[in-house]
């Protein structure tokens, strides 16, 4: 297409369609809350918090192992290492919970008010 684009009647028709679409509040709300989809990265790559969830799982397993070792040996150094790993695990779990809550909040905002009132 080497032409100049849309003709005047086509531009007027397009402007009219856009005007009508702007009056639809539900469509406007859905378009404002839409996010681009993430590229599919394999079986686990599509889950948004997979790396953080994996890290939290590994840290939890290490914390349990350190707790058992510290309880058996009563070594203060193992208790301090356990405490540090447990804090890191708690931070990862808190981040996962915040992400989950934010996803639920944005998903709920996309639902029309009439539907969410009946679900509550």
Q: Give the overall shape, derived from the CA principal axes.
A: rod-shaped
Q: What structural class should be given to the helix and strand makeup?
A: mainly alpha
Radius of gyration based on Cα positions: 26 Å
Largest sheet: none
Organism: Streptomyces achmelvichensis
Protein name: DUF3040 domain-containing protein
Structure at a glance:
The protein has helices at about 10-20, 25-35, 40-45, 50-75, 75-110, 115-120. It has about 120 residues and is an all-alpha fold.
Structure description:
This is DUF3040 domain-containing protein. With about 120 residues, the protein is mainly α. It has a domain at about 50-120. The chain has 6 helices and no strands. The protein is rod-shaped, with a radius of gyration of 26 Å. The N and C termini lie far apart (about 55 Å). Residues about 40-45 and about 115-120 have low confidence and may be disordered.
